[in-house]
Structures are given as structure tokens and as C-alpha cells.
Model the fold of this input.
Amino acid sequence: MALGTIMMTRFLAFWMIFVVNGMAAEPLAIYLTWRDDPTTTMIVDWHVDSRAIAQSLEVRRQGEKEWKSYLGVEGPFPFLKRKVFRQSLDNLTPDSVYQFRFSKNDREYYFRTMPAALSRPVRFAIGGDTRHRTEWLKEMNKVAVSHDVDFAVLGGDLAYDNGAESNANLLGEWFEACKETFVMDDGMVVPVLVTIGNHEVRGGYITGKEAGVLREEIGAENQDLLRSRLAPYFYALFASPGQPGYRAIDFGDYLSFLLLDTNHTNLIEGQQTEWLKSALNERAGRPNIFPVYHVPAYPSVRAFDERVSTMVRQMWLPLFEQAGVKFAFENHDHAYKRTPPIARGRADPEGIVFLGDGAWGVESRKTHPVEETWYLERAEAVRHCMIATLSPRGIQFEVFNNENQLIDSFSSDR
Done:
């Protein structure tokens, strides 16, 4: 009898971990992103403790009575006792609000699909190198969402996990911080697009020593497995860009992001550059094509002739110029940077403005002197995020520091 009482007590204690007053426990993290057109799709990820009873996802368009239920596809959180559930939502109505929840009595959240055409201003936050300290990550996330953004774009070096088993907790904290700050008080959730950086990867780069060992072990023919072993969290926990590590995200026909990999789990030369050529050709004549990648072509802190930066300039910039790209977003150097328009390796009014350099939630670094560096128009050692507002009239950029003070602004109607 005593044993039965003990077992019942343990069962009730276990159940209370996940159910309070008849309500399922809140997910540990909620993360929204896109792999396909953001006007008609959304991917919802939610994280739960590994012991938790699976929760269904329920979704409805605002104004509808019936909820549609999904179980989600379950996957592991590498090296951490969590489960990750993922559900892709398709055939959504553009520029519409969709409510979702994780149990019938749970808190309701919502997201908005993007407009099919640029019928209203579209606003996004962009930056990179997001977490040396969790409080810095939260601080800048809050700055970003205070400007009523539709989504955020983060250009690599997210949690600084280095692909290591011992750093699983850093990813857990990163996702929890995003739930705390990218979910508004009214339940609105801000979607996020990401690219890969060196601190997502064991050894930093695919050409590094540790990567070489894995290439020997796995074999050159299984590139998906190699990438997943090099960056276990990035490929398991971020639905987009997903394999092979680079992707184009098209918002109707008015905005495209090219999410690229600067030699971390994909070489710049070869297959990725061939894909980039095709992606740009397919989008010929479209406005607002924005490449996003980690290592800068025009570094504000590091040496100009650093190997990866040189490769980006040699292999990708001619393709950007031919396609009429006007802005490219760079990271990695932990500073704020704006270049003048540049084409063919020199200042040119019709060229590309390079914006960066990844100082969202990291210690900033001293930059090259602007007056002595031909390719820098603005550079400052400051944590910041950029807010871009796209409208039929052009694009407006505002740059805010960690105290939400405006430090730079400019616009373009090109």
C-alpha cells in the first residue's frame, strides 16, 4: 500500500510539471521562420522538455471559428534534454493574421503573413553576432521589436556554441531569450531568418582542421551529413535556410533575401557560387535583392586582404553587380559599418552599399579610421541593429544603438 502511495505521488508530481490548473505548460521556446514565400507560408517550431507529453499545435485565421490541429514533426535538440516540434503551414492568405496555441486552454499567439505586393510598408530588423551575453541579446532584441518590425534577419554567430556538445545550454538560452523578447505582450510573434557564421561550426570553417577530420571520416559524397556534423545545432534547430546551408527567400516579387554561407559549411567557390548565379538570374529585374552573409567583403575591423573576404569580393560581388543588387548585409567584425556605393572595386554612385558589421549582442571592436579607409563612409564600435523600411518610394534605413538611440539614417530610391 505504501509503495502504491509513493508511485501515485511521483506520478502526480510528474504531471504537475506539465499541467497546471488543467492547462498544458508553456513551451520552453517558440520560433517562427520561413523556407518558402512568406506571403503564404510559416514554419512554427516549439521546444518542450524531453519528458513532456507532446502538445498539438492549433491554428486558425483570425475571424474563423474552427481551429485546425497539427501534431508537428518531432526532432531532437542535440545534446540537450528537449524535444523540438516543427509544423509547416502552407496555403495561407497573404497579409492576414493567424492565431495559434499549443493546447485548447493555453495562451494564444499570432503571426501575420506578409503582403503579396508592396501595398504597405514592410519593416525588418537586421544585424548579426547576437550573443556574447544573454542580457545583451535580449536588450537588442527589445530595441528591434520596439520599431514595429514584421520580421528580423540575423547574419550568423547566433549563440556562439561552436558546434560543441558542452555548449548545448547556450542554444537553449538563446531560444528562451528570443521567446521572451520576440513574443509581444499581446501574443504577436516576430519571425526570424538566419544565416550561418563561424561560431555555429566546429573549427569555424569547412576548410579548418576539425572539418578536415570529419571530411575524412564521413567521406566527400555525404555532404548533408558532413554539414550536420560540422554545425549540429544550426541544421537541427533552424528550419531555414536548412540543407545545403544557403537559400533564397522571396517575398512575392518585391523582396528577396539570399542567405549565404561564407566558407563555414559550404565552400564559397564551386557549387554555392553556381547556385548563386542561377538564383540571381532567376530574379533578374526584381527590385530589392538583398544578400546576407557572415564574413564581410569590406571589413570594418579585420584586414582587407583576409582570405574569405577576398573570395567574397572576387566570386560574389561581380554577380551582385550584374544583378543590380543595391545593398548587401555583412557581419563578423563586431562594429557598425556603412560603405559608399561600390562597384568594380571602387566608389561608384551606381554601386552596392555594404552594411554591417555584426554587433547585435557582442563586445564591439575598434574600427579602421574612416578618414584613412576608402571604402568606409561610417564606422563605429557600437552595438546596434538596423531597421529597414521598404515602401514603393524606396527604402529607409535607421540604425539604433543598444540604448535605442538613433546613430545613423539614410534612404535610397534607386
Residues 2-18 form the longest helix (17 residues). The first strand starts at residue 19 and ends at 20. The chain has a mean pLDDT of 91.
